[in-house]
Amino acid sequence: MRNKLALLLAACSAACLYGPRMGEADSVDSYSRAGWAAPATEFPPRAAPEQARAGRAGGPINLGAELGHVDILPVVPRLPTQVINRSTFHVQQNRFAMSAPGNSTNFDVSLDGAGCLRGSIGAALAEFCPASLARGDKPGSARWRSTSSVSTFAVQLSPDQNTLLVEAGRAHGVFALGQGGAIDQLRRHPEMLGLAFVAGLMPAAKGHGNGPDIDFGFEVVERLVASAAGGPSHG
Questions:
Q1: Which pLDDT score, from 0 to 100, does residue 179 have?
Q2: Do the Cβ atoms of 177 and 164 come closer than 8 Å?
Q3: Rounded Cα distance, 218 and 115, in Å
Q4: Looking at the whole model, is its pTM more than 0.90?
Q5: In the Cβ-directed half-sphere of 153, how many Cα atoms lie within 13 Å?
Q6: What are the C-alpha distances in Å from 188 to residues 100, 117, 137, 181, 205?
Q7: Residue 20, H or E segment
Q8: What is the mean pLDDT of residues 113-133?
Q9: Beta partners for 157?
Q10: Distance separating alpha carbons of residues 195 and 229, to the nearest angstrom
Q11: Local structure of 111: helix, strand or coil
């Protein structure tokens, strides 16, 4: 029973950390009401931050240039009264980390020299690497697989690169991509956004679909910040 509870807490990830902080009762249902999507996978125990960020050769990962922040919003919220209606992520050339309503302790992954995503997701250590396409994968898609579990997901950009489809089992995330340098980096590395969807860190969206597959729609926009002169600017 204790092992099952540990797995449940690991799978719950950051979704379970924010129910009480958002003023909700401490129960699984309260997290759903608050607006968190459910994680689509389980992760192994988390290592120390320096170990999570270490490259395969043991050296640090080059995080690259600062590119700003993006907001992810549900096209249609799951509930009209849900508390969380956006997730904000910090984007660097080789890093994708949550900044609100949580912070990088909830989700912080980087691309290493081997092309794998490594980092921490809540109380878990994650490593996902490119994998062979699975049966039924659409042409032009790319698949990523955990190195420590059976978790896997696929990403596919539309021909105009304005829509990203993330397939994680029967749950599909459909992301309308806006404009800006941070979002362009997600076009180059859609697996970073895909893993955040798999981890359940999107605001809860109303699903729709036919048969067993369910699509959840989101918009990705570059966050506007105040410039030194007081006006809005991208960053």
A1: 96
A2: yes
A3: 26
A4: no
A5: 29
A6: 23, 14, 20, 11, 25
A7: none
A8: 90
A9: 164
A10: 36
A11: strand
